[in-house]
Amino acid sequence: MLPCPDLDAALAFFTEQLGFRLETIMPADQPTVAVVSGHDLVLRLERHGAGWPGRLRLGSDDLLGRHGGAVVAPNGTIVELVATDPPMIVPPLAARFELTPAAHREAGGVGRAAMHYRDLLPSRQGGRFIASHITIPAGGPVPDYVHHHRIRFQVIYCRRGWVRVVYEDQGEPFVLEAGDCVLQPSGIRHRVLESSAGLEVIEVTSPAEHPTHVDHDLALPTAAVRPDRSFDGQTFVRHHSRYAAWGPWRSPGFEARDCGIAAATGGLGDVRVARATVAGAATAWGHHDAELLLWFVVSGTATLRLDGRPDAGLGAEDAVAIPAGLDHALTDCSDDLEILEVTVA
Description:
About 5% of the residues lie in helices and about 45% in strands. It has helices spanning about 5-15, 60-65, 260-265; strands at about 1-5, 20-25, 35-40, 40-45, 55-60, 70, 80, 100, 110, 115-120, 130-135, 140, 145-150, 155-160, 160-165, 175, 180-185, 190-195, 200-205, 210-215, 230, 235, 235-240, 245-250, 255-260, 270-275, 290-300, 300-305, 310-315, 320, 330, 340-345.
């Protein structure tokens, strides 16, 4: 309800200037109330209404082009005009070294759909990235809904347990098991259905702040199955760890499996799972030139050596981001060391 002392002027503004449609007006001989609809809103304009005239936010490219960013109605209502599909905001990179130990596991909170979040990149690298260690302690059905994200890059790796999910145009729901990985392109509709107790996944996304849009109309699974469909230039990936081939990684004494993310993103991102094949293995010194190099220690231990910095011991559930140009190496690796490596160019 919006108070409108001059009902005629307000009604003309909302219908003629903003494109609302008149639904009801009363009484006929001397109108004091008008109901209008438009832009997914229903407004009741009252000549003798009391209170604040309100603030509205309307998504309309046409109105934005004609009126600019905001207009004020005759009754004082402020109407903000925004683009229906605003451009994605990816903050500039503020690369820094970050080591987030497993001891910070309890520092997170409960987020969307009752999922527990632990922040693996507290600095967010300037807002360009977010990495989360997500758990569902109880398991069972997940109170999720069909939704999608406006993102540049998003990958999910299952560390422990299992989760049943369903994706647009990718067939029937399937179970993501420990070691499996998915690439979620921007715009793909999906839903988390149920999980095992103690499910753990690692999620890496760019940018850090991004909207989750609910789709109330689409039912999953969809009738069409189009595994090669492009979503904003990327294709969906489901990496099965049990069928993966292992190959060389960095130095002798290690091997890795490629999760297929680089090919699906046109080289934007890459995800590999690396493991030591012998106790005491060590990598050669080296550096990278990517925006992000993130390691999450799935299991085992190692020593991280850094040029000009103190050595750091790594253990299970530790996460480390190494900025471009910083020489580094792994030494004293245990024979059960396994690392999730995510890079974004």
